[in-house]
Amino acid sequence: MMTASDKQLATNVAQALRQRRVDSGLTLEGLASRAGLHRTSLGLIERGERHLTLASAKRLADALGCSLWELVKDAEDAAG
Amino acid sequence: MMTASDKQLATNVAQALRQRRVDSGLTLEGLASRAGLHRTSLGLIERGERHLTLASAKRLADALGCSLWELVKDAEDAAG
Fold it and tell me: Quick check: A53 and A64 in contact, CB under 8 A?
């Protein structure tokens, strides 16, 4: 189960992901394919409705050409 | 299933976690308790044998008094 703070983190990571995806000119399908994830999974992730493992988050960061820590920092900075 | 690169990430995160835990003077039990995780789970995590969700990693970072991105950066820097 997600606690409120887990949900907040998921929302912030989702926003950071979507922002970097859009900035990279990638569609949801394009990023999912590059990262080896299902389009449906990535959709849930981008809506903050799915727990991400560090391993999946790393795959997404790789596919976006950034470090995982940069993606996480975006998310934590957004949290203020 | 963990791929080789997932396993490498888990190993690097495990090392970064253990280093910060030891630097904080916390035992495995102490950190597990602070982070609201089972001692056994944390033991598996510190051996790189368990997938960490971002949410659990965040709880551990909070318990260690650092940002999640700092913990992830430690792990990625260790990966070289």
Answer: no
Give the separation between CA A43 and CA A24, rounded to whole angstroms.
17
Q: Tokens 């000119």 label which residue?
A: A25
The nearest alpha carbon in chain B to A6 belongs to B55
Contact A76 B54 (CB under 8 A): no
**Which pLDDT score, from 0 to 100, does residue A78 have?**
86
- Neighbouring CB atoms inside 10 A of A73's CB total 19
Residue of chain A with shortest Cα separation from B75:
A69
Per-residue tokens: B21? 């835990």
In this prediction the ipTM stands at 0.88
**Predicted model pTM:** 0.90
CB contact under 8 A, B67 and A54: no
CB contact under 8 A, A54 and B51: yes
Q: Residues for chain B: how many in total?
A: 80
